[in-house]
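Example 3.2
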Amino acid sequence: RLSQYESIASETEIESDDRIAQIYLESGQNLQAYANASQSYRVTYERYQRARRNGNTTEARRAARELEQLSENVGTLEETLQSDYASVRNQTDIDTTQFSDELANVSSTIGSQQAAVRDEIFVETTLTTQTDQSTVSVTSPATISGQLRLANGTVLANTSGSIEVADQTYTITTDSEGRFAILYRPVSLPVNATSVSVQFVPNATSVYLGASDDVPMYG
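Structure, written as C-alpha cells:
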C-alpha cells in the first residue's frame, strides 16, 4: 500500500502528497527496523534466561551484553518512530495516538527488563578522564589518562577491556589504582570539536558495565 501511494503521488504535480508519501515510506522502514530489533531482543533475552537457569554465567553475561546494545537500539528507533508518527498526525487526518502508545508500551517493557538484567548480572562502573593537551591532531597526538572505579568508589584494579575514543579503539589493562593512559591520534575528529567521548568497553564476559566520560579537546 505504501509503495502504491508513493508511486501514485510521484505522478502528480502536488508536492504535499510527495512529502506525505515519503513520511509513509520512512515510517514503514523504521517500523520494520524497530520490529526486528524488538524481536532480536526477545530472542536474546530467552537465551539469557536459559543460560541463567543452567548456571552458565559466562554465556549469561555474553547475552546480557548483547541485550544492552539491543535495548539501546530499540530506544533510538522508538524516538525516530514517535517523530514519524507526529509528522503523520500533523500532515494528515490520521490519528496515530494508538500506535504511539503501543510503541511506548513495548519500549517500556524492554527497558524494564533490561534494567532487571543489569541489576542481576552486572556491576556498575565510573570513568574519569583528563588529557595533557586540549588541542589534538594527527601530527600532535594527546595522552588521555583515566581511572576506573566501581559505583561505590572502589578502584577497578588490574582490569582488562577496551577504551573507545571517537574513531579509535585501544586495548587496556588498568594498574593497581585503576588507572590507564593511551596516546590518542585522531583520524577524523571534526575541526569544530570541543570534546571527545571516552568509553570503557568491558570484555564480553566481564562482570562490569561500561562507563563513559567527555574530555575537553579541540580538533
